[in-house]
Amino acid sequence: MRTAILLLCACFATAASAAPLSGWAVISPDGEIVRSSHAVGASNNGSGIYIIEFARAVQHCAFTAALGDEAGQTPAGYVTVAAAFQDPTGVYVTTFDAGGAMVNRGFHLNVRC
Length: 113
Prior knowledge:
Order of helices and strands: HEEEEEEEE
Strand order of the largest sheet: 2-1-8-5
Strand content: 35-45%
Low-confidence stretches: 1-18
Mean pLDDT: 86
Helix content: 10-25%
Oligomer: single chain
């Protein structure tokens, strides 16, 4: 039993040293980073379509997002978020108005690994 405990501790130490990057970003409606932690790029790729790039791979992380501008105002609508296809450092975000039409909206993105 003592050997098993030592091996378990060694596994946790290895996993912690190789932990992926967590971060967040506040993005303006035109796709600019307003403020962030570890976001290195953002683009608006069409009406309501954004790609946010982080400093390291985030494809196995959890993502949440909420509509809101840099001043904290929240427009009516909703936002979806997912890992970017074939881009391990990217997060794909789409924003919609209350009627379901894709429109540019500011948002707050959270990435937890």
